[in-house]
């Protein structure tokens, strides 16, 4: 199984470290144009002081050079075929709506699912998206780029909670891969101030945005 993770920051890097533990994943493609900054170190112990200035994607590749393919690039519509290509699934940890629209387009074309994730200030979101069930546009309509977490700030542990929620959605999908009716639906809201996870349900949606 080939899995891509878009973004190697506070959501993406813990996701990558966890996905490495899954022996069914033979290839993990990781991509991020950013370099490691001193401010990344306190909550991301897989980055160390001597890594400051290196590309995050390259550093994470060191943890499993035979399974991880690293790209020090931002995902764009132009490079999406090369970067996502024949992945079986994609995790979004991009903090970027252009990248999310690009992943959604890849999902419509490839027919493969992806997991949306975001964290801003004290509020996180995660959703499992697939052409058979619901897409980004089913959830959000037409999208505007809101403030990004590096501009607005984010509650530290919230990014781990969102990464964990993404992995729970992934597990639910993995256990029911042959049965789309049992794939996770709706949008999960993680409230870091109240420590709650709430699901906004979608009523038996059958996405028609991709056709
Ligand atoms: Zn849709």
Commentary on this structure:
It is a single chain. This protein has 211 residues and is an alpha/beta fold. It has one domain: Rossmann fold, CATH 3.40.50.720. It is built from 7 helices and 8 strands, in the order βαβαβαβαββαααββ. Strands 3-2-1-4-5-6-7-8 form an 8-stranded mixed beta sheet, with helices on both faces. Helix 1 (12-19) packs across helix 7. The radius of gyration is 16 Å and the shape is globular. The structure holds zinc ion.
In what order do the strands lie side by side in the largest sheet? 3-2-1-4-5-6-7-8
Number of domains: 1
Number of strands: 8
Fill in the CATH topology. Rossmann fold
What structural class should be given to the helix and strand makeup?
alpha/beta
Low-confidence stretches: none
What does the overall shape look like? globular
Give the mean pLDDT.
93
Portion of residues in helices? 25-40%
| Tally of separate helices | 7
Proportion of strand residues: 15-25%
N-to-C SSE string, H for helix and E for strand: EHEHEHEHEEHHHEE
Would you identify the CATH H-level superfamily? NAD(P)-binding Rossmann-like Domain
What is the CATH class designation?
Alpha Beta
How large is the radius of gyration? 16 Å
Major beta-sheet overview: 8 strands, mixed
In the CATH hierarchy, the architecture is: 3-Layer(aba) Sandwich
Brief characterization of the structure:
With 211 residues, the chain is of the alpha/beta class. It is 29% helix and 20% strand.
